[in-house]
Amino acid sequence: MTTQPTSRVPAHLEERYALLRQRGFERHADGWHGNGLEFQIAGSWLQFKTEWHANADPLSDHLDKPGLWKPVRAGRQLRRVFNVQESVVGASEHAALLDETERKPFESVLDWAADTAAGVAPVDWALPGRDAIDACLPKARLTIVHRSYTRQVELIHAAGRLALRGTLLSKLPVELPEFRLRWLRALLLEAQDDNHLVRLGLARDRGQTAVVTEIDLTGVPAALFEPMLSTSLDALRWVALLVESADFIAETGTVSRALEICPVTQPNPLGDPRK
Amino acid sequence: MTTEEVLPTTRSVGPGTVSFTARDITGLNEITVTDMPGAAPVGDVARSLANRLNLPTDVPWSLRNDRSGEYLKDDADLASQVPEAGSKLTITPRTHLG
Question: Strand B87-93 and strand B17-24: pairing?
């Protein structure tokens, strides 16, 4: 008689898998599928995926939507992804071990992803108070200086909405040639593929178009609020380095023969953020 | 006859941005800034202006309002200290006396 070696699954993973089964998810080779969502552990991130509407613009239709969902190119297709750092959830699970009355952090994340995938914040979500936010958000962290550029991250704290938004370029020139706009879109799409959490896009307001970065924390579980806020600011700070390239492309006074060649959009082979 | 100074009604080109003119202490280099976030602390603004004016970035800089002659407070936000459009600021090395 031969016996198969049994692989021991850590208890916290068993607990997560049990919850997924309970919520109607089924195990597949590439992760868990259920309720129109896919779940997998991608490196050090917990990753949920779902469909992206075919005709939607990945640089504008995802802005101002609740939760961490954003479009990422997978091969030649677009998927919506929602990523949360495993370490953030793990630390929170560790802290919650002593408190049996609290909902488990993974369950909160699952609800956060599922509810915001449908475009709404979780029903029982309470917007953190401004005092609580100010206590863990030093004002200086909202200002980003990169060489000659200064950018300010705006905290959007309103009924049913919590988000961080930065402006890379406050106003695109109306006379920006089409090929320059294509280069700018290629730059933003690639950065959106490559960087976790951050949405990049073109926000139109009163006839002007701004290049923005955004992380929407609407619906964030209370236990994850502080680490997610901190991680989000770091992510926005990193992506703000793009301002130089974006400004160069959008500067109509700059003559560049190279920019007159239309960019060839490269598919993202892995379909996952790389950083 | 009395004349009344008319201040421009707009001072920003984008949401929350402040426009002004900045120059170095020699007055030889001057730039017009139109996209500075009003909520940014003056210390950070001075740092990025030093970069734009090709000044050394490894020394601390201060901003002085040419009109009032006052130095702007480093830790306060720019918009509260540069209230009117067309302000002229001079970037100067921060000196520590005593």
Answer: parallel
* CA distance linking residue A5 with residue A3, whole number of Å: 6
Give the N- to C-terminal CA distance of chain A in Å, as an integer.
Answer: 47
Which residues in chain B have their CB less than 8 angstroms from residue A148's CB?
A: 48-49, 51-52
Determine contact: B52 vs chain A, CB below 8 A.
yes
ipTM over 0.90: no
What are the tens digits of pLDDT across the range B18-74?
999 999 999 999 999 988 999 999 999 999 999 999 999 889 999 999 999 999 999
d(CA A10, CA A16): 10
Name which of B32, B22, B29, B30 is nearest B66 in CA terms. Answer: B22
pTM above 0.95, yes or no: no
| Count of beta carbons in the 10 Å neighbourhood of residue A212 | 22
Separation CA B5–CA B7 (nearest Å): 6
3-state helix, strand, coil in chain A (%, to 5): 35, 25, 40
The per-residue DSSP string of A225-252 comes to HHHHHHHHHHHHHHHGGGHHHHHHHH-T
- Closest A-chain CA to B35: A170
Ranges of beta strands (E only) in chain B are 17-24, 30-37, 61-65, 87-93
Q: Chain A contacts of B22, Cβ < 8 Å?
A: none
Interchain CB distance below 8 Å, A170 and B17: yes
The strand ranges marked E within A43-160 are 45-51, 70-74, 77-85, 143-146, 149-158
